[in-house]
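Lay summary. Proteins are chains of building blocks that fold into shapes, and those shapes determine what they do. In this project we predict the shape from the chain. Here is one chain we studied, written as its sequence of building blocks.
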Amino acid sequence: MSFKYLNYMYEKKSFIRFSSNQIKIVAMITMLIDHIGLMLIGNGKLYGYNVALHSYAIMLNEAHIWNILYRICRMIGRISFPIYSFCIVEGFLRTKNLFKYFVRIFILAVISEIPFDLMVSNCFVSFDNQNVLFTYCLGIIMLYAMKKFKNQIVSVIMLVITCVAAYFARVDYSYLGIIHIAFIYSMATDRNLRSLGNAIITFIMSFQNDFGSGILSTFFIHYYDGTRGIFDLGKLFYLFYPCHMLILYGIVYATYMLR
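And here is the predicted shape, written in a compact code that computers can read:
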């Protein structure tokens, strides 16, 4: 699949348009809101790391309000992953050096694992869940095979293999994240079909706990115009991930002395 065949651009008369950096900012903000809910409210006000304290906290009158705020933050956060996935596919299609692109994300995934484990499990190393950048690494491997062999059977086999790997490696968003990446890539030339598929998949991904709020990401993906935009985020887009987790964990630990 060649990037020159991608149908991203809108007519000039289109009023709603989002550049690459604009949707990246949306992804960063919604992810931050999600993790504020997880850390400052869930693991802070509701003492999520401590089972005994959590059981006590949720019985308090004020816990009802905090639970509502927590749920709202997590619902907003479901917008982030599909946009990040979309940007990963965009990067895959645009990069001139796929190996460096993969290595950069893999190194950042390794660096981000300690902040992620601290945020999720309150420990430096945990194998219960791996951060979402490992999901994207598996996705890139899958996309490379799809692009290289250009064979439907090979594509399906690689999709199954990476879905199984995502499931057993316990990466964030598991096999549904891989399926989302594969679909965004496969439908890159059809904006309307891509948006419809994104809406369906993200609704399913976020239905159980967050009322399908991930579907809201479709608005930003659908109106992406293929341009970079005036604000070049550069490496900040990726470095924001481990840095904000460390900061939020530090705030919660310093404030509530979680052990």
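What the prediction tells us: The mean pLDDT is 89.
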